[in-house]
């Protein structure tokens, strides 16, 4: 269970990125975080694992308040939070396998990681994960030889090999074409279901969020404007979050694509 209590982030400029956020995410739930640029979506994700320090408030992962941890304790706690980045954050010159295994750096000593001497069980798990996402044949390829969708799958494997309780996913489809975007969203949701993982997915594509998740939270100016199911994202709600637009067209697009997926199945 992840619980945010009165989470506030104010920058030195005086800008409030987050305004007293209260939110609970149970184990196994995948939540899409939507809202306009500057709404505080990325800040919220980064405050959870303290890549950005909250100004005040609490972040509870099970029975641990992450905001109260020392730097050493935080390093230990971050093992439980897998991060998937928009720009993949892979080491281009390393192989796919080496990038996946880098997710175990928090568990192995400095010299073992420096020499890339990982335990066999970690190597076996990396192969299993690569097989699960369809990249087993590319284990020895360099990261810079991969397509965007392949890189994102490597990033997913790297996060999962941490054996986390929570996934924090920042714009996983922003640089991908529509078909690959749907494949990546489907894969993340399937893996979370298989592992009972909670996840927060920061995503700009409202239609994509509606297609794949059971809960949507909408931010505007650092505050929660909506918290509900995809079906409750009416044109009026979307106008409140984003402003005036032809939201009926977005909703119709989701319904049409749902019908197409059902026919294909």
Walkthrough of the structure:
The chain has 265 residues and is α/β, with parallel strands linked by helices. It has one domain: Rossmann fold (3-Layer(aba) Sandwich), CATH 3.40.50.300. The chain is 39% helix and 22% strand. The protein has ten helices and ten strands. Strands 6-7-8-3-9-10 form a six-stranded mixed sheet, sandwiched between helices. The chain has a four-stranded antiparallel sheet with strand order 2-1-4-5. Strand 7, helix 7 and strand 8 form a beta-alpha-beta unit. The mean pLDDT is 89. One of its GO terms (molecular function) is ATP hydrolysis activity. Keywords: ATP-binding, Cell inner membrane, Cell membrane, Membrane, Nucleotide-binding, Translocase, Transport. It comes from Thalassovita autumnalis.
Quick structural overview:
The chain is α/β, with parallel strands linked by helices. It has helices at residues 41-48, 71-77, 96-101, 110-114, 120-132, 148-160, 178-195, 206-212, 235-242, 247-264; strands spanning 2-10, 16-25, 30-34, 56-61, 64-65, 81-84, 166-170, 198-202, 215-220, 223-228.
